[in-house]
Amino acid sequence: xSGQPVTSLDIDRRLAIAGPISVLFQELAEKFFDQPHIPxxxxxxxxxxxxxxxxSEAEMAVRRPEAKGLSKGKIDAVLAGNWHRDxxxxxxxxxxxxxxxxxxxxxxTIPDEAAFAVSRHFGDSGLVCLIEALGFIxxxxxxxxxxxxxxx
Amino acid sequence: xxxxxxxxxxEVSTGNVVRDSPMGLVPExxxxxxxxxxxxxxxxxxxxxxxxxxxxxARTVNCVFCKSVRxxxxxxxxxxxxxxxxxxxxxQQSDLPEEEKAALAFADVYLKDPKSMTPALWxxxxxxxxxxxxxxxxxxxxxxxxxxxxAVSLGGMPEDNLPVMEISVSK
Lengths: 152, 171
Description:
Largest sheet of chain A: none
Mean pLDDT of chain A: 96
Shape of chain B: globular
Radius of gyration of chain B: 16 Å
Number of strands of chain B: 2
Mean pLDDT of chain B: 95
Shape of chain A: globular
Number of strands of chain A: 0
Structural class of chain A: mainly alpha
Low-confidence stretches of chain A: none
Strand content of chain B: under 5%
Helix content of chain B: 40-55%
Number of helices of chain A: 7
Strand content of chain A: under 5%
Oligomer: heterodimer
Largest interface: A-B, 55 and 49 residues
Structural class of chain B: mainly alpha
Largest sheet of chain B: 2 strands, parallel
Distance between the termini of chain B: 30 Å
Order of helices and strands of chain A: HHHHHHH
Low-confidence stretches of chain B: none
Helix content of chain A: 55-70%
């Protein structure tokens, strides 16, 4: 372990030693940014929101290449925790970020209204895709934080 | 917690618990998730070790379905219900084997505060596991946790615990 910060974008280099299953893990992460249910720019805002909630400076400093149309204003608002009343964000985007924050705290706390708000904008498949993505993006951030710890 | 299911599962039955769940509504990812959940058991880590981590995750997330499951491969590997009962707070003072206690310490760091990983825990893990095995356990933790949290987030989780149910790993 080098002790260099690792992020969800490069955790696969550390996990590659696991063998073929690490390829599955990496490919799944990439699919969340290349699917028809939630736009990649919004998925990147979800990743940044998780990074903010984990207080991971390294994670907040990197950007997924798939999010090509994301404005600096939206990125800055998410990284400052100020998106909630920001008029830059659509109701659809707010529904996703709101759901993500409940999810991060504890999935048991997610109110039905927060889930149905996502479904209204993105359909049932969008809600399921978001839930899956939250789980695996959060997993990669958690593992990146663990693998960033220097070994003696 | 959502008392009712927020999404209906697809009306097809493949016999795979992941593919037959609402996750089947996202065909772009369902195969990868099903494969991860199945293949993690075949990557050179003792099934009993993975199972104690999976159950620690299930109990922490409070996924009633995940808590009720026991994988047959773990039982064949020697995991007993007496040991399963010790997968709770205070597990480091339990009678569980040292290998499983180290795995549980790793699981708790992942589940509760990944920033709390320490060099000492890396050293402890390496006393029992190779780097390859630790990476498999890491992917397993991520997969188990994402799956349990998915089940809870989808709503409709029973309020009471379910009877223990032994199942085989889905392929």
